[in-house]
Amino acid sequence: MDKLEQLKTTKADLDDLSAEFSSNGESEEGSKDIKTDVLTINFGPQHPSAHGVFRGVFEVDGEIIVGIEPHIGYLHRCFEKIAEHRTYTQFIPFTDRMDYLSSMLNNWGYVISVEKLADVAVPERAEYLRVIVGELNRIASHLVFLSTAAIEAGALTPYFYYFDERERILWLFEQLCGARFTYNYMRVGGVRVDTPDGWLDDVLAFTERLEKTMVDYDKLLLGNYIFKKRMKGVAPFSAEQALDWGLTGPSLRASGVNYDVRKADPYSVYPRIDFDAVVLCNGDNLDRVIARSQEIKQSINIIKQAVAQVPDGRVYSPGMPRYVTPPPGEAYAHIESSRGDLGFYIVSDGSPKPYRVKIQGPSFGNLQVLPAIATGSFFSDAVLIFGTLDVVFGEVDR
Amino acid sequence: MSDEVNVNDNNIEDLPAKGMIVQEKGLGYTLTVDRKDLFKTATGLKEAGFDLFLFVSGVDYPNHIKLVYRIYSTKRANRMAIVVKTEVPKRDPVIDSLVPLWSAANWHERETYDLFGVEFKGHPDLRRIFMPEDWVGYPLRKDYSDGHMLVSDSDTQAKPRLSVVDSQTDDGDEDAGDEGKPEE
Questions:
Q1: Nearest CB to A352: which of B53, B149, B156?
Q2: pLDDT digits (tens, 9 = 90+) for A49-95
Q3: Does residue B19 lie within any of the structural domains?
């Protein structure tokens, strides 16, 4: 943690930065006459740094952003309407395609809500497998975050290392369920298949490897002077602002609010596992990056404990009907996805299809922060700020 | 599965309309209010420490739209969430906006307006958010149909739905009910 302390932005650094740049010529004699105009710049929807299809209309005054008008909906498929025409099980593959970087967690959020609605018990082994694959998927997602954050700051090297590690996770998932990306692994009442022989040993070997390599990668990225200089003190967001705008997930915790669903509203077997929610204090770009890097370490910790505790037994609740038919009623359950608080609110009318499924995707709530967080920053930092919010457009638009 | 909230009931003593807060199965603490009291109740909740607005959404019924809000408190000692429910009639779907209390409500209310046609009075920028601005109709209403929707009712003996009209297309030539058919 000592290293972390060194990386933190101090108040003095921020003052330096603002003194250096924000005066913007106005206070200097003779430059008062320079007339500046607000310029409108279009960003996207087809832009390599847009993490999907995002269009933002930026208003810039010189180099400073004075306003952003986000336009979303390019990927809108109205999954909530589709859900009303599918059985409960048929809808599981659709959740894969929401936040496609953490499909396992999306599966999990959905099935846990249906299980709550239908009052289905899940075998213990299945709960542990869910924790293991969920945390592996969180690591994979954060690795993508770190590599894209590096690329957006102009550093291409870390990308290859992070993607190498992510590739190992995808290989593990392929061994487990046959798919590298859209897993469709969880079922109401358990998981689809048990692990292949030796899979848990492979997971353990991977976590041990990653634990060592993450130390090097942190040096490579977070120890890089240019990267730190580029990220430190950029777009700081206070805890009050973050709560007011409904930010969730690692970005909220980077602003100093301790809200992690795994701790605040424990589900599955998390109460039996010893881990920490990563809470930082500055809420600037650098803290949002450090939060992900630290969460990977916590996830490794969780996986190790879960692999040690996982019992034998069945992975699917016996006697589950072909069509899950919950009694009339409604339920809401949520999990900590890699992007924040992912919740499903489901209303049943007693038929084999849901009457209403509301998907509370964290990316949607996190993206609406963008105008508030980026106004006042440099236009050249816009993509970095957008990147550190870590949104996936499959989930924003659903 | 864990309980939604596991706190003592006496922890809700300081909340507005505490007599009406019930523990609903599947939802936890739930408060049902009349639509004209919503803003007042929400103000009381905000003052009582509910600082994180998570979502608002609707459920379409034949004659009314039920609105469901979920608000969380990171400040209160018991760190609880509360679900607030209210109803708007379909012929006059208007309700007070909560954006003055929580900025986070902004996009969620726009989404509900876009997909359900609920008008949020006092919203600073009430426009469609997913659908194009000139779109006609509200897609998540049960009687909505644009003539291109896949309907797969054949492989399940679905019981009668709550709403009378289910968007049935005229041609009906869509392949029905391929279970888990991958999209790609």
A1: B156
A2: 777 788 889 999 888 899 899 998 888 888 998 888 888 988 999 99
A3: yes
Number of domains within chain B: 1
Q: Is residue B153 included in any domain, yes or no?
A: no
Residue B36 to chain A, least CA–CA distance (Å): 24
Is residue A103, in this structure, part of any structural domain at all?
A: yes
Q: Is residue A344 classed exposed, middle or buried when 0-12, 13-18 and 19+ CB atoms within 10 A define those classes?
A: buried
Number of domains in chain A: 1
In a domain, A351, yes or no: yes
Per-residue pLDDT, averaged over B105-112, amounts to 92
Q: Is residue A204 part of a domain?
A: yes
**CATH at residue A369:** 1.10.645.10
Q: For chain A, say whether B4 makes contact (Cβ under 8 Å).
A: yes
Domain holding A224, by residue range, is 79-397
Give the Cα separation of B37 and A349 in Å (integer). Answer: 28
Chain A touched by B7 (CB under 8 Å): no
For residue A32, tell me if it sits in a domain: no
Q: What is the count of residue pairs from A and B with beta carbons less than 8 Å apart?
A: 143
Q: Answer yes or no: is B24 within a domain.
A: yes
Task: Indicate whether B137 belongs to any domain.
Answer: no
The reply to whether residue B1 touches residue A267, judged by beta carbons under 8 angstroms, is yes
Strand pairing of A340-348 and A329-337?
Answer: antiparallel
Supply the CATH number for residue B15's domain.
3.30.460.80
Tens-place pLDDT, residues A106-158: 999 999 999 999 888 899 999 999 999 999 999 999 999 999 988 888 888 88
Say whether pLDDT at B6 is over 90: no
